[in-house]
């Protein structure tokens, strides 16, 4: 079962695009040595080089209403039929056109229907989209207050029941899709088993769409069904692109042989992420980037991650010469201010004169959350540029050292208002060789000790030349102890005159790398282990869209792609020290493939403990144990209720400056959980907690009253018989809170005693949490859902 996530904290990505035609982990491989990102994706990169189009020419084609095979009234009627809850909703507007994305998609024949719904004098609005050519529902999202929020645990529908319901709805909502045109994804990242423990039960399903009988890597249909069987969300792609014939000119055997003969792995330091934060590092074997390139099914040639024919030569890595002008850390001994950070940026880059400082914020860095960075934006706020995506430049600067981590001349790549910069007076256009020297000079100025820790990745040929000769790009790989590091390094792009237009430098915390273990398995053994996991599969790949340099007209190609035989394996790498497979991207709730805890069977709280493991609230240790009778701390309690409320309680690690909350400092392991609790008013921010202290039963009762927003009511229960009947009631200080917990069935006594000073175990808290789950819908408060506005 999936449960609704009630709070999500997110910060916009550093580089924004108005529309990404394809979102793929492979696109990240330009920043990574060896292609781990490619290993974790079944699609090609969005950063294709050929056939670049001028963004300014991407005007939407005006749709012709006479060509619509589904009328406006029919589209409205179909939506009401699919969602009976809309019977009392009012249509506030209808528009025939695209899906409001930029650049406009190929399908401009879409009915965009705006709805309004009034409850108690408050008006709510949302929209739905229906294809005007085939009548398929394209997109909608319906939630509170349009649906009753009573789909609590235990749900009326099991996951299997909900899947059947989803398939029936798809057949009705998208008649152009036959039963053989959809394929349920078996990837746990796409179909997570445990959303959140608290909240309405929801089941999320993702289906690959088949074209001409083949899967299309970028075409995924998503649907959400709640525990009562209501459809909450539906999204079906409508790209309006042509798909080539599904008949390949190259045989599968030929493609498989080409893949097998060219497969290679390399040894890297690889970060292991948990909830978007680096949890640890492993020394691991992973495929080289070229090894995971798709093969064009018509030509038999390998295609790089940009859709171009791949070079037959491997990528080489060159030392970075030390330049005369090198990065020097700020020597003030204190944090620089926003003006100083902006000055450092403008000493290196040329920001258009009409763009003025617009926003500045000091927040947590990423991926190194120990750092504080200035996030700065320069915008042209003139009346002629007040667009959804205004012309804007963006930078991130380390507040302690002044090192620049990010710079984008165009923060919003899809902005229609962007004009090319004029050529600098007296400047000449650079050759590819001159641009390479300029890149070396720039990286020396921008990156600390660049010559000692970076190497230039030479892709050969004209890889470094941008489309239509508009500039150049260069990639630098980060090394640590002589070994390349994944998810780090530098990617920069400059215009034809050598002016920096895009710069990205990941700077993680290397202090947690534990020495340099001796590999337990050889390179040849690693190669064979990977080969056993991968197979070439015929599919469609979408290539094109926006990257941080240019827009490429989207197109679909028929390819053979090397994919893991088991989708669950696509984000795993081989730990060279242990020979075991390690998942490098893990999120709370991703427990579909996790083995059951080994020490729960026969325990009195086995059922409750098992549910908490299922939803990621409790996580087995390396030996598969939960240790159910282990006592917990005050901080553990907040971690449990935060995780039970949303698998994303930690949010995006890039955020505002962190300050002490409820006496808990930012460096505490419990800080994010306590902050989440304070933001949801489960505790006061002025409270002074002792998160590392063991949690007693009486303390738990007090925290339960606060969590349920019943602290004031509990005062009236001081003399309640629920607490006075305990033989040890005299030793209970917070009698009202204990009485409340007992009256609600959350806690109970043992042999006539409450045992207020007894410490709470994992088993004990599991029982309480499941009692809270069952209490949902029976009390005035929405358990785990209140958030400070």
UniProtKB/TrEMBL annotation:
Residues 721-783 form the SLH domain. The lineage of its organism: Bacteria, Bacillati, Bacillota, Bacilli, Bacillales. It comes from Paenibacillus jilunlii. It comes from the Bacteria. This is S-layer homology domain-containing protein. Pfam families: DUF4901, SLH.
